[in-house]
Specification:
Length: 117
């Protein structure tokens, strides 16, 4: 372009119209994105409402409840002994008792499971 030729003057209204058109396009895109996200949230909430809660475990018998209570008390007593042995520095004895606690705990888990193995 030669120095003596100038660009034609663009009316201010035309510039504003182009800018407004671009703003309109951006707003439309934003509204579309928000509507899409609202739809996804609504579908997610509907899925959550449709999910079925698991059935509670069947009640345990009185005999089983007594066995569980006895095992829990044994574990509690053994853990107190483990703590006192550990404080006394008798680490080997404390470890042996912890193995016994673990065995009793496994029995406790086996008794509290609602379904047989």
């Amino acid at each position: 372009m030669s120095p003596d030729k100038q660009l034609p003057a663009v009316p201010l209204l035309l510039v504003m119209a182009v800018v407004l058109q671009h703003i309109y396009i951006l707003l439309f895109a934003i509204v579309f994105q928000v509507a899409d996200l609202d739809r996804k949230v609504r579908r997610g909430r509907e899925r959550l409402e449709q999910e079925v809660e698991p059935a509670p475990p069947p009640p345990i018998s009185a005999e089983k409840a007594e066995q569980l209570s006895v095992l829990e008390q044994k574990i509690k007593n053994l853990l107190e002994q483990v703590e006192s042995l550990g404080e006394a520095g008798k680490v080997d004895e404390a470890e042996a008792l912890m193995r016994k606690v673990l065995q009793i705990f496994m029995l406790l888990i086996g008794l509290s499971e609602p379904f047989p193995h």
